[in-house]
TrEMBL record:
Protein name (Swiss-Prot/TrEMBL): Glycosyltransferase
Record lineage: Bacteria, Pseudomonadati, Pseudomonadota, Betaproteobacteria, Burkholderiales
Erythromycin biosynthesis protein CIII-like C-terminal domain ranges (all copies): 289-398
InterPro entries reported in the protein's UniProt record: EryCIII-like_C (IPR010610), Glycosyltransferase_28 (IPR050426), GlycoTrans_28_N (IPR004276), UDP_glucos_trans (IPR002213)
CDD domains (alphabetical): GT1_Gtf-like
Pfam families cross-referenced by the UniProt entry: EryCIII-like_C, Glyco_transf_28
PANTHER family given in the database record: STEROL 3-BETA-GLUCOSYLTRANSFERASE (PTHR48050), STEROL 3-BETA-GLUCOSYLTRANSFERASE UGT80A2 (PTHR48050:SF13)
Source taxon at top rank: Bacteria
Domain annotation Glycosyltransferase family 28 N-terminal: ranges: 3-74
Length: 424
């Protein structure tokens, strides 16, 4: 079977689909991955066919924009990028369809895969990497420092979702998307970020139930599996290995792969290490973000495998991306999370609820505050024990294998057993 996988997002979004592609190829399927050309090398290095879609320069411009980490401004920036690429993804994937022998898989924002499913009658699956995109009138996801709206009545939450769509998301996504649909002879859809986002024979959540339990109003086709935990970073090299051997376990810091404007984050992180007396590793391929002079015991690396790195650090400070969060959970390392936008607030909140992390707002991310948090994190024995317990739960799962099992059952024409949904 030919399987076309469309991925829209950063490197952290692409890697889980590379893992799925590798497993599906191992099972005998022909797999093609469609993503920004920036990631073609990573895809091809895994032995998969890569089809570059869109502009690498435009992707870099997004990383370089300060608006990329602003919760309000990033919404319009992301929408413009997503919608401009829908026709490009559609055309590239359409050209590779073999009638009767093709299925499509799309990431959350890969709208073209849903269009192909509908227009061409292809079986299709949607894969969500984080729970924030599954709306609920019960335990609602968190999109800001304001929380999960726990105390609000369901009718108020329903009103919030509807207002968010009508005032913000429909103009950004719905209007241009329905224009594309009209050109394909398809009827318009209403509130595409509400229920339509999960359209397909199967909607997979690549995270476990204990991280985000399906709510009573979850989509009927939704199936959570487990974290993919695929790591495309560089292994620990000789230089970093020598750094580990030269002193106490360091603290690792990263602001993620989806921005190149976190200068204040890395400056405060380096100074926090000096104030707390801790060694540190600043992880970013964008060296311009890092201070020209670092304190003794603090180093910078472009990239490193989290699976190799995190079990050897005293704590992990990051932005709350689902990849960084899940790798830290698997490693059993205490986390300090500074969420900035997108799903990061929700992921941070769930990690805090699990008892393995603390969260700090960007405005409060100062050297003295971070130094204090690091001292608290690394001396909290109860938190350390909880990290160990959660790591054991994470290790007991196989998200990619489960997801591929579900996809194959669809290809065989078998509907997966509906998810058991529980309130939390």
């Amino acid at each position: 079977m030919r399987i076309l996988i469309a991925v829209v997002g950063s490197l952290g979004d692409v890697l889980p689909f590379v893992a799925m592609g590798v497993e599906l190829k191992r099972r005998g399927h022909e797999v093609r991955v469609y993503a920004n050309p920036t990631f073609s090398g990573v895809i091809e290095a895994a032995g998969l066919a890569a089809v570059g879609v869109g502009s690498a320069a435009r992707h870099q411009a997004f990383l370089d924009s300060p608006e990329a980490t602003d919760p309000k401004k990033a919404m319009a920036l992301v929408a413009a990028g997503v919608m401009s690429n829908v026709p490009l993804f559609y055309d590239a994937m359409y050209a590779d369809i073999i009638p009767g022998e093709t299925t499509v898989i799309g990431s959350t924002m890969a709208f073209a895969s849903r269009l192909l499913r509908e227009k061409c009658g292809l079986p299709g699956a949607v894969v969500h990497l984080s729970p924030s995109v599954i709306r609920s009138e019960f335990m609602a996801p968190r999109f800001s420092p304001l929380g999960h709206m726990e105390k609000l009545p369901r009718c108020v939450k329903r009103f919030v979702w509807r207002t968010l769509d009508r005032k913000f998301l429909d103009p950004l996504y719905g209007v241009p998307f329905n224009r594309l649909r009209a050109g394909l002879g398809l009827a318009p859809v209403d509130r595409i970020m509400h229920q339509w986002l999960h359209e397909g024979e199967l909607c997979i959540g690549l995270y476990p139930r204990w991280f985000a339990a399906p709510q009573p109003d979850a989509p009927a086709n939704f199936h959570p599996t487990a974290f993919p935990l695929f790591d495309g970073g560089e292994r620990v090299g000789d230089k970093l290995a020598a750094f580990f051997d030269d002193g106490a376990a360091p603290v690792a810091f990263t602001s993620g792969t989806a921005n190149a404007t976190s200068h204040s984050f890395y400056a405060a992180s380096a100074e926090a290490c000096r104030l707390s007396g801790k060694r540190g590793i600043l992880i970013t391929p964008h060296k311009a973000q890092v201070p020209a002079t670092l304190p003794q015991g603090v180093v910078q690396v472009d990239s490193v495998s989290f699976q190799a790195l995190l079990p050897r650090v005293a704590a992990f400070v990051h932005h709350g991306g689902i990849g960084s969060t899940s790798q830290a959970l698997a490693a059993g390392v205490p986390q300090l999370i500074q969420p900035m936008a997108f799903d990061q607030f929700d992921n941070a909140s769930r990690a805090v609820r699990l008892g393995v992390a603390r969260s700090i707002a960007p405005k409060r991310y100062t050297a003295s505050a971070v130094a204090d948090q690091l001292n608290r994190l690394t001396s909290d024995q109860a938190l350390a024990a909880r990290c160990k317990a959660v790591a054991a739960m994470t290790a007991a799962s196989a998200g990619v294998d489960e997801a591929c099992d579900l996809v194959e059952r669809i290809l065989a024409g078998v509907n997966p057993t509906p998810v058991t949904r529980t309130a939390s």
